[in-house]
Amino acid sequence: MNEAAPRPKENMGEPLPRIDGRLKVTGQAPYPADIPVNNLAHAVLVTSEIARGRITALHLDKARAVPGVIEIFTSESLHGDLEKPKFGPASTSIGPLHDTKIWHDGQIMALVIAETIEAAREAAMRVTADYDEEKPSTGFGSEGTETVAATEASKQFKEDVKAGDFNAAFASAPVTIDAEYLMPTHHHNPIELFSTTAYWQGEDLVVHEPSQNVHGWKVEIARQLKIEPDRVRVISPYIGGAFGSKGPVTPRTALVALVARRLGRPVRCVVTRPQAFTTQTYRAETRHHIQMGATQDGKITAFRHEGWEVTSRPDPYVVGGTSTTGRMYDYGSVLTKVFLVKADRPTPSYMRSPPETPYVYALESAMDEMAVALDMDPVEFRRINDATHEPIEGKPFSSRPLMECYDEAAREFGWSRRSLQPGSMRDGDWMIGMGCATAIYPANIAPCAVRIILTDDGRARVQTASHEIGTGIRTVAAQLTAEQLGLDIGAIEVEMGDTRLPAAPVAGGSNTTASVSSAIMKACGEIREKLARAAVTAKDGPFSGQDPHSVVFREGKLVAGNASQELKDIFELLGSGVIEQYSEFRPEATSPEAVSKLYKGKMEMVSGEKGEMVKYAFGAEFVEVHIHRRTREIRVPRIVGAFAGGRIMNTRTARSQLMGGMIWGISSALHEATEFDHRSARVVNRDLQDYLVPVNADIQEVTVILVPEVDKDANPAGIKGLGELGNVGTAAAIASAVYHATGQRIRQLPIRIDSLIG
Amino acid sequence: MLPFSYERAETLDDARKAVSDGGEQPPTSAAVQFIAGGTNMSDYMRLGVNRPAHLVDINPIPDSSLRTIAITESEVRLGALVRMSEVEDHPGINQRCPMLAESLKLAASRQIRNMASLGGNILQRTRCEYFRETSWPCNKRDPGSGCAAMDGFNRQHAVLGTSDACIATYHGDFAQALIALDASVEILGQAGSRRMRFAELHRLPGDRPEIETVLRPDEIIVAIAVSLPAWAARSGYLKIRDRQSYAFSLASAAVALDLSEETVRDVRIALGGVATVPWRATEAEEALKGKALTEETATKAAEIAFSGAKPRQHNAFKVELGKQTLVRALMDVGQMRI
User: What percent of chain A has pLDDT over 90?
Assistant: First the structure.
């Protein structure tokens, strides 16, 4: 492994350790389900054992008989007090107890409330149901599914991107490939279990729940409970892994709040690991059809990408990665189409790089197949098709360091030692394969508000309702504030994850670092301006009469030339002990109301494809696999990734994000899949024994190279997100390496022993 | 989880007397059950799979024989409360019979192995997904309810020793080493003590998959005895799984070889991850005896070992994988220098 704190290169911040690291590793970070609450009642979900049909009876007597049971909420308990969730801000439109219809396996049927969690669990296990059961459809290949065009089903998915005349170009291409790829259902499985803790203070509701979008949740929870949004406070300072699973409001949250109101006491519901597989969101399984045509010398002339995505019956969640894959290379012609396949399943949602992970897996696998068809080195094939302008609208990339990433990673990896022929590299009984793929993620940015409170002792408090989901944003916020105000990072406190704080966007789309940093830079600029102006307008100070912009902030002082003045003295000049600076950052291309809308739970995120230039972060990943010639175990002794993400705020946290992404990429390639019983459309592997993720022994050498990049056109701060870049492309690199080792092209993930044997 | 009462047994006599109604039911569904390391028991109690009303904790019993690893010229005797990690760390066992130590090292995680007792380990119950989640029909958990795995998602299920009622895999690793070496177990119950071949402890599922062993509810395994011929030093355990640690086997092979030059004088083979019970491949052993150990003879033996395999929809790969695992283990062990 390379070092955890890489030395910063150009346009990179210091690798400061996480300011909350000690709290986390010593178990002192207050996660929402850990908050001590007086007089707490415990709630446990009862979920359905069928995937489609109707509940005809719920038998509660045996459950009520368990000592300590307080109440059991069912569809008869709501009395119209709870609106159904709204798909979009909520993860699904399927109400927790709103009717007796069953839409999917493990649907919430009842909520048992008891004095202890043990009693609630035992009682929940004793609830039985009678069903009027119908034959369900699991997904691809099942009878009874409904296929619809994504553009028709969802307002969010506006167009199937295209360019030129694909059909003519493909028909006349001298070299073509035509292949299908499958990525299965994935579940996030953050280590922190999902939970809701709710209590009322008079008319006001407090919700402690791990959330990636506290202001969005506030509004949707209030809507479901039919109260004013300002009555709801959502608190989520620490989040034990999210990956998109804590983005939309769950159908459980407002229900738990309603129960707390009815009982007049606090209620906590912790969702079990198995229940999370059906009551939380997941990555939709996707099927991809790709056709590609190229000239003999390797220039792509035609690219077609069709995707099919499983979703629930009522909600049209679209993964839709064709906007990215259609823009990736200089294709000549592009034709794309996305379809939804409606089945008896919960509604899927965001999971780390939601569109890019599956769609780029398919594209990059096809790129490798085409390189093989052309008998060409896959890196050189990508170089030939590198683009300065994206092919859909002909817009320039704000920067395009893709081949720099390839070249740096290839050098570190030793790609030149790879022989072209599959099956040609061996080490005893182990077949060796090497593969590579592109990583890409749009540089998104959103409106964000922040308050910075600077006191005359040189301490600052940064407040924003952003979300520390493990990326290190709390540290980056402190580091940036310290740098901007010339203070030590130890003098900065950061408060996040609370709707009482200035509004921040969802922690999604890798926008947080760019958005929060932009707001902090604005607030700090205004604080500096205020202080500098006071210093230069003072009658007999060291800076009297100077240009305020000549004053810099360093080590708790204002400095210009040889002169300096303590912060405390400037505060005295101002006649104040505190500067409280509230600032709103609004990206260009957003409406003037963008920040006020943020407070109302609506976010205007500016995506990387919008504007006169398209903005993406890029990377290249190289992987070596070893496969035993007899037993076909696949091992990954090393993986190298080089990434360019604009300004890097902290090389330690950046590396950590990218490394974690690549490890997840290995997982999606070789381990992870949610398995279904296709007769019943039910999940079979509903815990971490059977839902496999890599353990330490599976992860050997992981090398992250941060490629310096300055891209002021991406956004004024020049920051691109990294959180969702590292796991894009990894699966394709591994599938390509497996092909190189064995000559077997596996087009369905995960690639396991049974993909290669028997 | 069901409320239960708990007592700590101070002596072996206390323990066996605590289980008053030996009854006809298998120990796994008895009202009173023993707990040692608890790694399997507490997991299955939380899941509602195992629902004893009363637990008798045998950890406090002071008898040193329960905790002793005793090696002689020809035998090792392992007390039933010895923890898995103690055996895997034992230099004598690593030297005299690597297969025993390796079968433990490759199981679970070190944290679990620090807790889990040997007696409990060999009685561990299947990890069949349909067994572990109580909402599915399962003949083993709920006799007569049917087998959801048979035509369900059965990638991890057994291909050997199956029945029309159950295809659940026995996942233990240590048991493969024990059955390969024809170990025996010492058992104490209300009727006194008995000793039996380990190979007779587990029952094929047949039409009563809920009865997993020949033990009565009042019986406790107190020790495991393994004879160790000198050639057990040429042995090994190969475990193939979906990840490199902390996973049950898809296929495994415990192999010990008595070689004279190239010729196989004696051989022991057990197969894990592919059968419903600890599985010794005696016909494959016979096929190798007196022959030179080559890829050809090893492959022939592997063919014989799996000739009776009955794969289902998702586990057909286990037949080929099982054979390859055995060939690889035989060739690897054959090359060991002792």
Answer: 98
Query: What is the span of the domain harbouring residue B26?
Result: 5-58
Same domain, A114 and A73: yes
Please list every residue in chain B whose beta carbon sits closer than 8 Å to the beta carbon of residue A274: 133
Instruction: Tell whether A697 lies on the interface with B, counting CB pairs under 8 A.
Output: yes
**Domain boundary residue, one of B15, B33, B58:** B58
Q: Is residue B285 part of a domain?
A: yes
Would B307 be classed as within a structural domain? yes
* Shared domain check, A526 and A638: no
| Domains identified in chain B, total number | 2
Helices then strands, counting H and E runs in chain A, come out as 19, 30
Of A121, A678, A692, the CB nearest to B242: A692
Residues A381-413 have pLDDT tens digits of 999 999 999 999 999 999 999 999 999 999 999
| The predicted structure's pLDDT at residue B2 | 80
The reply to whether residue B153 touches residue A675, judged by beta carbons under 8 angstroms, is: yes
pLDDT over 70 at A254, yes or no? yes
CB contact under 8 A, B130 and A630: no
Q: Which residues of A are catalytic?
A: 724
pLDDT in tens, A36-46: 999 999 999 99
Is A361 a domain residue? no
Q: Is B222 a domain residue?
A: no
Q: In this model, does residue A2 exceed pLDDT 60? A: no
CATH of the domain at A247: 3.90.1170.50
By the CB < 8 Å criterion, does A228 face chain B?
Answer: no
End-to-end CA separation in angstroms for chain B: 51
By Cβ distance, the residue of B1, B2, B244 closest to A697 is B244
Q: Which of A599, A619, A650 is the last residue of a domain?
A: A599
| B159/chain A closest Cα distance in angstroms | 14
CATH of the domain at B49: 3.30.43.10
Q: Is the dihedral of CA B241, B246, B248, B252 positive or negative?
A: positive
| Residues of B engaging A, defined by a Cβ cutoff of 8 Å | 1-3, 48, 127, 129-130, 132-135, 148, 151-153, 155-156, 240-247, 250-251, 314, 316-321, 324-325, 327-328
Summarised one tens digit per residue, pLDDT across range A472-516 is 999 999 999 999 999 999 999 999 999 999 999 999 999 999 999
A635 and A487 within one domain: no
Report if pTM > 0.95. yes
Distance from A256 to chain B by nearest Cα, in Å? Answer: 22
Taking Cα atoms as reference points, which of B204, B213, B218 lies closest to residue B168? Answer: B204
**Same-domain pairing of A584 and A450:** yes
> What is d(CA A13, CA A15) in angstroms, rounded to the nearest whole number?
7
Cβ of A428 under 8 Å from any chain B Cβ? Answer: no
Query: Within this chain, do residues A745 and A684 fall inside the same structural domain, yes or no?
Result: yes
A753 touches chain B (CB under 8 A): yes
The yes-or-no verdict on residue B200 having pLDDT over 70 is yes
CATH number at residue A409: 3.30.365.10
Give the DSSP H or E segment for A494.
Answer: strand A492-495
Long-range CB contact pairs, A536-545, < 8 A, 24+: A538/A573, A541/A565, A541/A569, A541/A573
| Choice among A212-226, A329-343, A536-550, B160-174 with the minimum mean pLDDT | A536-550
| A354 domain-assigned | no
Per-residue tokens: B139 = 């003949």
Is A636 in a helix, a strand, or coil?
strand
Name the band, by pLDDT with cuts 50, 70 and 90, for residue A1: very low
Look at chain A and report how many structural domains it folds into.
3
Chain B hits for A677, CB-CB cut-off 8 Å, are 148, 152-153
User: Any idea what DSSP says for residue B69?
Assistant: E
Chains A, B: CB contacts under 8 A, how many? 90
Inter-chain contact A695–B244, Cβ cutoff 8 Å?
A: yes
- Which residues constitute the domain of residue A520? 445-599
Residue A108 CA to residue A46 CA, distance in Å, equals 6
Q: Does residue B311 sit within a domain?
A: yes
User: Which residue in B273, B325, B272, B278 sits closest to B298, CA to CA?
Assistant: B325
Chain A positions in Cβ-Cβ contact with residue B148 (cut-off 8 Å):
677
Cβ–Cβ contact A273 with B under 8 A: no
Secondary structure (3-state) at A461? strand
Kindly report the nearest CA distance between residue A102 and chain B, in angstroms.
16
